[in-house]
Design goal:
5-stranded antiparallel sheet, protein-glutamine gamma-glutamyltransferase activity, 29% helix, 3-stranded mixed sheet, EC 2.3.2.13, 17 strands, 273 residues, transferase, Protein-glutamine gamma-glutamyltransferase
Length: 273
């Protein structure tokens, strides 16, 4: 269910919008959710839909790139933009713009190797970069460190229990009897793409069943417990981040109006009112 202030949103709310088919499916998933999603205005709702869409597209782009899977000890980065620290994380070099460093992962993907949690965080940063202006992104994330789930507080990443899986969420497949010789396969962080498809770094774009099958091949000898999807979701703070996507003059539409469109410039998607 979706509410804007105290008003319930119905199927026809976005009937005259120019959202893509994929964005419409994200809207439908929010509508059909047993959870109630409450927004102060249309801008917050539209921002979440568009950012979720960008998260999905970014995950697919990373899956198609030449980035490799590696444990922290063997991680690699482009030293023009990053310094690899003693833990295997990537610290932004002094004098480098965060936006340039994040974009480089997709431009020079063959120079990078990292594990699955870092991949998810990179997807989040890149998707946000594509929906807010570079200056704001660089101000918010001026001291980037890419290492596991160590994230900037402005991402607002939170994990919540429940099975309210929405496209653009990070989900986790747990492997309870993983081989202790390969602890990197104790589980797999994925971006849920919708239609039971997930992107998991090191596994690729697979269905839930295929990801579970891949993890089950990484279990210890004589294991009997199957890998499984944890009932939890990990998300960025969409509402908080929406304030950094500007609307001309701060204009807000009345709740019963639908006079908005979306537009793209390169890989970025913007709202126009």
């Amino acid at each position: 269910m979706i509410k804007i202030q105290d008003t319930i949103v119905y199927n026809d709310f976005l009937a005259h919008s120019s959202l893509s088919k994929k964005q419409e499916k994200i809207f439908e998933a929010l509508l059909k959710s047993p959870e109630t999603y409450v927004y102060k205005n249309e801008h917050q709702l539209l921002f979440e839909i568009i950012l979720r869409d960008r998260i999905i597209d970014t995950a697919i782009s990373l899956a198609k790139s030449k980035v490799r899977f590696a444990i922290f000890r063997l991680s690699k980065c482009n030293e023009q933009f990053w310094i690899k620290n003693e833990l295997g994380g990537f610290q932004l070099k002094e004098g480098v713009l965060p936006s340039d460093a994040i974009n480089d992962i997709f431009i020079n993907s063959h120079l990078y190797a990292f594990e699955c949690a870092t991949a998810i965080v990179i997807v989040f940063y890149k998707a946000i970069l594509d929906v807010i202006d570079k200056q704001t992104f660089n101000r918010l994330f001026s001291n980037l460190l890419l290492y596991d789930w160590h994230v900037d507080q402005d991402l607002g990443v939170k994990t919540k229990k429940g099975e309210d899986y929405l496209p653009g969420d990070c989900l986790y497949f747990k492997n309870p009897e993983f081989d202790p010789q390969t602890p990197q396969w104790q589980g797999e962080n994925t971006i849920y793409l919708g239609n039971d498809l997930h992107y998991g770094h090191g596994i690729g774009i697979k269905t839930s069943e295929e990801i579970i099958a891949a993890l089950n091949k990484k279990r210890k000898k004589d294991a009997t417990k199957s890998a499984y999807l944890l009932p939890q979701t990990t998300r960025v703070d969409f509402i908080y981040l929406s304030q950094f996507s500007s609307t001309p003059g701060g204009y807000r539409l009345p709740i019963n109006k639908k006079y908005f469109i979306t537009g793209t410039l390169g890989s970025a998607t913007f709202l126009y009112w």
